[in-house]
TrEMBL record, chain A:
Its cofactor is [2Fe-2S] cluster. The lineage of its organism: Archaea, Nitrososphaerota, Nitrososphaeria, Nitrosopumilales, Nitrosopumilaceae. [2Fe-2S] cluster binds at residues 223, 228, 231, 239. This is Dihydroorotate dehydrogenase electron transfer subunit. Keywords: 2Fe-2S, Iron, Iron-sulfur, Metal-binding. One of its GO terms (molecular function) is 2 iron, 2 sulfur cluster binding.
Amino acid sequence: MQRNHNHTTIVTIEKVIDETPTVRTLIFSDDRMSNVLPGQFAMVWIPGVNELPMSVMISKEPGKAAFTVRKHGPASTGLFNVKEGQQIGIRGPYGNSFDLKEGKLLLVGGGTGLVPMMRLLSFVKSTDDVTVLIGAKSKDEVFFEDLANNMLKNNPHKVIVSTDDGSYGEKGFVTDLVEKLVNESNFDGVYACGPEIMMYKTVRSAHSRNMFVQASLERMMKCGVGICGSCCVGEDLVCRDGTVFDGDHLSSNKEFGHFYRNKAGILEKY
Amino acid sequence: MNQLLYSKLSSLFKVEPSLATSIGQIQLDRPVMLASGILGISLDVFNRLYRSGAGAVVTKSLSTEPWEGYPNPTIFSVKGGGWINAVGLSNPGAPNFAKMIEPNQEVPIVVSLVGSIPEDFEMMIQQFENCKVIAYELNLSCPHVAKVGLEVGDDPELVRKIVTIAKNTTDIPIIAKVGLGTTHYLNTVNTAIDSGIDAITAINTVRAMAIDVETQRPILSNKFGGLSGTPIKPIALRCVYEISSKHDIPIIGCGGVSTWEDAVEFFLAGASAIQLGSAVGNDWIDVFSEINNGILQYMKRKNYSSIKDMVGLAKKS
């Protein structure tokens, strides 16, 4: 019988990789999660701790998938602390995915927002000319640079890292690099995932130059299935209408880049 | 036009059925409402739901202060159908929420309220004086938050005081949402009707839980939650039938509606409108227009011109 994506499946963590002092990748076997599209997410249950939405990370081995998590609040720290051999619950995949364009592509990832970008990289064609921008606060927090270069070794490509403090790669915000690059070249597709202000500026830069741009949004999410309403952005629900939205759509959304909702559903300014 | 002429004309020209319905003084263009607790914190989303075919939207249950609700997991999909949720009545609080919906012009909004003492309800209703609201629904039946909901609904004297104070605070219709607690829900219904309630919504979710066999733990962070969706529909239908058999009070059927046939069953049992929520999790917001269309086709086939032609028909058999 085919698995109902809303039912929780228990999987065992087979391997834990330290990416940075605060970021880990947890690898597990699951055919369905190994084949998700870039932008889709799973609801991940850490028994006794919490459940949180996670983008699904790629894994080199067939049938395996992964989550890459940065320890932050109680839920993400709970997932970060899961050891090899421990069990977690997953349901999904949920959400839509990026529309894959061909030609000259720009992928912008901030922090763990790189996860859907890595999955998107696994779909690019060998003829695509791909630029990946990796944004991090400092050298300690840079990860997936080698992975991105490795995945693009047969493509014309650039992987550029920028750190806010200049301790590695280019100095400054990744959005400054985006602005520079979209001024210099016409990209056939621009994709972003990361902190919302980063995505907002990326979408604004690309959209104002009539480039195709999409962003994968993150919001307070409780149910993941369009019932609880916590993840609404204007009239959109990130879990059901997203996570991926077009630049056109986002540019007319009055909350994107300006407001988020707290746990009680009150609109707060960024 | 006299009745004889009307009926002759009706037989010559099929009357186009209307989905409009009334729940006492409450007039709706369409009988399918969004139930409380679902998608209920943004006016933009309310507008979208209304455009999608919802006849009215019921807000999340609002409290006097903002509530964050429970940690995740807050929802569980039951094998065989339905959901168990313990979101924990997260909401922005009545004063914040009233500001959010103040610009509303178009959407028929029912404000759901939850509280512990009569004065909570008085204070909250006063917040909405400047808002376009078609009714208030008193949540006397949430099964998973202490001191409110079912614990209030289970105390008939408290129900009497809450309904009385709500009725004295506003002229807008007041609906009582009842559920299955430790007090027989018909006693709560009796008390609410005696105290002047305008309509009854029946029922709320039913107290339930889920345990994961691999990790051997309750899944919801709150351990217990409320079961909704298709498994509770026969129970809700029975309650609507029972209430309508004993009382002449407008009823809104709620519990497990996911198809037009479910909606019609509730009408036949005595409901003038229905609410749905879980179906949104399965079929997304297209479910409103699908059910509306199904009801219309049924009405054409049976030659009914209005929803009220169907209300309570099953009691005559």
